[in-house]
Hints:
With 93 residues, the chain is mainly α. Helices cover 61% and strands 4% of the residues. The protein has helices spanning 9-20, 24-31, 35-42, 50-58, 64-83, and strands at residues 5-6, 90-91.
Amino acid sequence: MSERIRTHPGANLKDCLEAEGWSVNEFADRLEISRATASRLLNGRQGISPEVALALERIGWSNAEFWMRRQASYDLSVARNRAEGGAREYDDV
């Protein structure tokens, strides 16, 4: 039986962004990444790299290890789902 795919970490970042009242541009500036990269992260089209995890830690959004585990958990759920031939709806972690 296929497990549901966990929510992309970008959804968590979006929640944090909204809680802070930041725009995508402000988020990108604070992380010192491009607006395009920020948009891809927030929309689940790009994973959290070690560099982004460190930037998130630098701005006080947990620690880099948390974000790397979060990304790895998402990636593993996607891989398991593919290996089982399933495509299920997304599920919050």
